[in-house]
Amino acid sequence: MNTRSTAVRKDSLRCLLKSCREAISYEEVGLARPLFGRCPGLSQEAAARLAGVSAHWWSDLENGRLRTPHPALLDAVATALRMSEQQRADLYFLATGHPPTVPGSPPVAEDGDIDLVLRTDPNPAVVTDHVGNVLAGNTAAAHWFPGLTDAPACAEANVVLWFFGATAAERVANLGEIRALWVGDLKSTVLRYPGNHAVTALVERLVQLPDAAQLWQTEYATTHHTAVRILVRHPSYGPCELTCITSEFVTGKRLHVGYPSIGLK
Predict the structure, then answer these.
(1) Same domain, 205 and 255
(2) 176-209: b (≥16 Cβ within 10 Å) or e
(3) Is the pTM here over 0.90, yes or no?
(4) Which of 23, 71, 98, 223 has its CA 20 to 30 A from that of 169?
(5) Residue 105 included in any domain
(6) pLDDT tens digits, 212-261
(7) In terms of domains, do 172 and 202 share one?
(8) Domain with 189 in it: what CATH number?
(9) E-assigned strand segments in the chain
């Protein structure tokens, strides 16, 4: 890494940590405010105390002197500073020099996820985590793919498992093709997130399904397709084609939006 890029990374890391510290007051985390504190928000020492690390270690982190900070410690820093998932990903990248490969904590639905799917109406849309668990979905998604957005009550509120369920068998005409794509994508996810508990758990569930077991043996790992054609038997519109566009974020989340070949009002 050249001198300029190193300087940019260190400056950005310092700004990220400092801004997150200054956004948290002593009172809201139950700490006594120093009598002679000059800066707003938490000091480095107070933040280090919340994260369970030494003030010296925190200073080295914030000033870019740590070359390979342990992911567990970075996760403790992110939790102490109440970082969003995007901020967590930025912290990991700026502290280590490369993007995170395994999510530190299970992704949860954020206001931004809900806003994304609401803005896509009347096109069906869902936001999922890195293994396809649905975090947010709009009303159109519930109409096109019943049960998919019923998290957490419905076991099928996972995109991969939904396509191996009874509802998908009734709704999707090119189901074999779609199932093969998702199995290949899941195998790719296994390679991208080695040892990740959520990935392992999904694979274990999937291979117990008769229709999935054979595909798991025969399909090869493939990166996710940004555009997939799904032939849907819609109860109101009849047979129609849905082009599903997938966008992936640095946090591992994905936004899936379907664009029907018919004009929706």
Answers:
(1) yes
(2) eebbebbbbbbbebbeebeebebbeebbeebeee
(3) no
(4) 223
(5) no
(6) 999 999 998 887 677 899 999 999 889 999 999 999 887 788 999 999 98
(7) yes
(8) 3.30.450.180
(9) 125-128, 134-137, 227-234, 238-248, 254-260
